[in-house]
Design a protein that fits this description.
The protein is 91% helix and 0% strand. With 91 residues, it is an all-alpha fold. The protein has one domain. It starts with a helix and ends with a helix. The model has no long low-confidence stretch (mean pLDDT 88).
Length: 91
């Protein structure tokens, strides 16, 4: 039963990732694309944690933690770039 639930969760995460990729490509604004990229990063993080639990390997959880830290820093860098770009156009 546990393996069936993990399979269902993986397929659900895959469906969510496809929807986020579509929003990332078709997003009308840069903010929509940024949010889709952040959500996609969270989905990849969930895949890593699910794989770690499924295979019983704690290394996946360590990789997920580092991936989350770098994802957050990347999100901050992109947000700051967009903020500076918006203020540069207004002046």
């Amino acid at each position: 039963m546990r393996m069936i639930m993990m399979d269902v969760m993986q397929w659900y995460l895959l469906l969510c990732a496809v929807v986020c990729i579509i929003r990332l490509i078709l997003g009308p604004t840069t903010a929509d694309r940024l949010v889709a990229l952040n959500i996609l990063s969270g989905i990849v993080l969930a895949f890593l944690v699910l794989s770690g639990v499924r295979h019983g390997r704690s290394i996946y959880l360590d990789v997920a933690l580092v991936y989350d830290i770098f994802g957050f820093l990347g999100f901050l860098a992109i947000a700051r770039f967009l903020k500076d770009k918006m203020h540069g156009e207004g002046e």
